[in-house]
Write a structure and sequence with these properties.
Elements lengths: L20 E4 L5 H12 L31 E9 L4 H12 L5 E9 L4 H24 L4 E6 L25 H10 L17 E4 L4 E3 L2 E3 L8 E4 L6 E5 L13 E5 L6 E5 L7 E10 L3 E7 L3 E8 L5 E8 L8 E6 L5 E10 L2
Parallel strand pairs: 1-2, 2-3, 3-4
Antiparallel strand pairs: 5-17, 6-7, 8-11, 9-10, 10-17, 11-16, 12-15, 12-17, 13-14, 13-16
Length: 351
Amino acid sequence: ASLYGLDPEKDDLTPILPKLFYNDYNEWYPKRVEIITRFLTEDAVNAGGKLIRSEAIREGGDGTIVGDGLIDGIGMQGHLESAQNIDQYIQALRAYDAIVDEVQVTELDVRGSGSGDQAELNQAEFCSEFFLGLLKERMSGVNLTSVTWWGLTDDASWRKGANPLLYRGDLTEKPAYRAIGMAALGQEFKASDLPTLRDATSLFDDFEPRTEDGKLINQMPADLGITSRGSGHQSSLTFSKDENHTENAPIGRSLKVAREEKDATVQLDISRFIGNTILMSVYAKTADSAITLGVTGDSDLELVTVPAEDGWVQLNAVCRLDEGLSAVTLYLETDGSSDLYLDDIAVGVAP
C-alpha cells in the first residue's frame, strides 16, 4: 500500500487490490457458455461456506462462485481462426457480461486461413470485423475492459507456424495491425487497401534449391505454402535427395511426406487461384496401392485417384474454385500410411 501512497490502516485499498478472473478456453461455443454459466451461477460449490471460508465472501451469498462474490470477472481466451464465427463469440461475450462485472479477452491470436500473403489478408479482414464488433459491444454497454494479444511476433508464438500475431519475425507489422488501427477509428479494412497480391496465373515447384544474386536460398516446405494435413495425426515434411523426378536437376530432390498414420497427409495452399478454373499436375511415389488428389475449400473434394505403380505416377485434374471461398488447398493422400514423395507440382489458370 505504501508504494501507492496509501495507509493500509486508514485508506480504502479497493482500487489497488488484484482482481481474480475465471479464465477458460473455447468459451464461445454455446454448450461451453451453458456449462460455464451454470458452474459459476447455479452450482452451490460453497454452500454453507464449507469449501471456502473468507471475509471476502459476499454477505448473503448463495454458495455459488458468483453469488459469493469470489470472482471479479471472466477472461475469454481467444485462440481463433479467420473462419471463426464472430457472432458466436459476441453472443458468448454478452452472456458472460450478464453475470459478472467485467469481461476481458485474455489470450488473443488469429490464424489466417491459407498461407503467405493470402493468410495475412484473411487474418486482417477477420481482425477488422472482430474489433469493430468488440467496440460496438462496448458502446452498447458491455464492460469489456481489456484485449491482450498472446505474444508479439509470429516466430515466438506458441502456435508457431500458424503465424497468428500482429508482427512477423523481423518485427515488421502485418496487415492485421493496420486493420485494428482502422477499427479504432470506426473504419472497415478491405484487401483493396493493400497492394495487389503476387501473380496468380501459375505455380510450379520442383523442390530444387534456388539462388538469388549468387546466394543459395534455403527454403522450408512452409515457405512454399506446403504444410502437414491431418484430422489428428500430422506428417513430417522434409526435402529428400533419395528420390527425384525432375529431369536434368542439378541436385535432384523431392518432398518427402513421412507418415505413421493414414490421416497424416500433405496440402499446398492454392488460395491465390480463387475465382479461376485451374489445371493441376503432380508426380507422386509411394509403397501404398493408390494415391488421391483433391482440394479442400468449404469441404473436401476428391478429384482423381490413380494406382500407385512401381515408380513415379502423374496425377492430373481440373477444378473450378468459386469466388466465395476464403481459402483453398490442394491435398494428396493414399490408401495406407507409407511415406509419400512428391515432385514437379504445377498449378495454372485454365485457358
